[in-house]
Amino acid sequence: MTRISDLPPELIQQILLYCDPSSVVRLLSSSKSLHRLNPWPTLLHHRFKTISDRPLQEYKKRHLYPSYPEFFSIAWLDDNYWSLANRLDSTSGTVAVLRSVCWMDCSTVFEHVMPGRYHLKIKMRSLENSYSLSNVTVEYTAYQETTPLTISKTIGTFLDEEEVWKDFILPPMDLPTSTHVRAVIYDHSGRWKSGLEIDSIKLVRGDPPEVLEEAPAVVEQTQANSMLSRVFAAVGL
């Protein structure tokens, strides 16, 4: 019996265009060979016509690297703890909804980011039933050849105003070479959290328009993380 992973990559990508986003995420998580396929640029072109009108490389040079809920890697995405929902006021029409979870981890990877200065921007909002979100941390890491660079910041009181979309912005980092950047929203403390919607995660070229003052961001660049960098390089991330 022929497995889907035995098909040519071009044919697999065409098949994925007819699948709903949550099915694509689950399928790619089931096989290392499928995960390495990286169909996201093709799917992004297909779903967001504003990007497909120009070459992807040119778009990246000019503006940003966007990621939307369909492309997030979310622990406990099963409609009980996290779910994907349609929202007319969202950027892509879909949001990631945190229903209730004690071990929170939502991430995305921007591959082959070109050299330059970038900052991370996450569009999200709290809901009426939200609780225990103040200790949620947002961070992004550039897996450089020498030492990984990580910038992180806790949400704190940023989402105290309910039902309002807000951009949570992290300070910029400079990338001297092309690399992969991983962004993650997490809280592994074991406390139950609820009532959060995430619209998008974007790696934006240039300095941010403003830097939040509630709490300082944490910048880490240690040799201890170099092993993690080599692991990610070995698995193709």
User: Could you say which overall geometry the principal axes of the C-alpha atoms support?
Assistant: globular
For the terminal residues, how far apart are their CA atoms?
30 Å
Alpha-beta content class: alpha+beta
Please, how many helices? Answer: 7
Series of secondary-structure elements, N-terminal to C-terminal: HHHHHHEEEEEEEEEEEEEH
Q: What are the segments in which pLDDT stays under 50 over at least 5 consecutive residues?
A: 48-55, 211-215, 222-237
Strand content: 35-45%
Would you tell me the overall average pLDDT?
79
Structural features, described:
By secondary structure, the protein is α+β, with helices and mostly antiparallel strands. It is 21% helix and 36% strand. It has helices spanning 9-16, 21-28, 32-37, 40-47, 49-52, 56-62, 226-234; strands at 64-67, 73-74, 82-86, 94-98, 104-113, 116-131, 137-142, 149-154, 166-169, 173-175, 179-187, 194-205, 218-220. Strands 1, 3, 4, 6, 9, 10 and 12 form a 7-stranded antiparallel β-sheet that branches. The chain has a 6-stranded antiparallel β-sheet with strand order 2-5-11-7-8-13, with no helix packed on it. The two termini are 30 Å apart.
